[in-house]
Design brief:
This protein has helices at about 10-20, 40-55, 90-100, 170-175, 175-190; strands spanning about 1-5, 25-30, 60-70, 110-125, 125-140, 155. The protein is α/β, with parallel strands linked by helices. The chain has a single domain, classed as Maf protein (Alpha-Beta Complex). Strands 2-1-3-4-5-6 form a six-stranded mixed sheet. It is globular.
Length: about 200
């Protein structure tokens, strides 16, 4: 079985990936590294993290970069999603700021999608990327107690009557991260000669 260290020191995140990826083994890195995410895209930032962890631990690495893209606010979220609104805001503060920014906008101006880019870094000469995406729109209220980040304001296209923070079981199966992992899983199963 292929084994990767996850570009994080967070064992909970490693556990989440391990559930989503049965064809590979994922474990948290022995320590968290501070990586300067200077990339202009999700893939570039995932690669920067993967390279840093590979150089430090000399083992195959799985890194991810994710965020929320809001059509009406180009360039404001995306790779900057975790920093939206500036320092000092927590997850809820950022989500509320987004609702404020979209106040008075109609449905067509509230289109958005979550995106996740995974980078599987075997070595400098063998790197694979996979993308997952969930389309939806930003609601008008902060609703739901599950999830994190922008989940309480994001209504998935497949379940428009609820926010991502109201349907944790559905999110586990259909999130942008889950979709990216499905693509990776199919690829690695084929690569390992297993039945996809």
């Amino acid at each position: 079985m292929l084994e990767f260290i996850l570009a994080t020191g967070n064992p909970h995140k490693a556990k989440e990936f391990q559930v989503l990826l049965s064809a590979v083994k994922v474990s948290a890195a022995p320590e968290k590294l501070e990586v300067d995410e200077t990339g202009k895209t999700f893939s570039e930032n995932a690669l920067l993290k993967a390279e840093a962890y590979y150089q430090k631990f000399k083992a195959p690495v799985l890194a991810d970069d994710s965020g929320l893209v809001v059509d009406a606010l180009p360039g404001e979220l995306g790779i900057y999603s975790a920093r939206y609104g500036g320092a000092g805001l927590d997850d809820k503060g950022r989500a509320l700021k987004l609702l404020e920014a979209l106040e008075g906008k109609d449905e067509s101006e509230r289109q958005a999608h979550f995106v996740c880019h995974l980078c599987f870094y075997f070595s400098p000469g063998e790197i694979f990327f996979f993308e997952g995406r969930v389309d939806g729109q930003i609601g008008e209220q902060y609703v739901g107690e599950h999830g994190f980040g922008y989940d309480p304001v994001f209504h998935p296209k497949a379940k428009p009557e609820v926010t991502m923070a109201q349907v944790p079981e559905w999110k586990d199966q259909h999130s942008h991260r889950a979709e990216a992992c499905r693509h990776a899983e199919a690829f690695f199963q084929k690569r390992l000669g297993q039945k996809a």
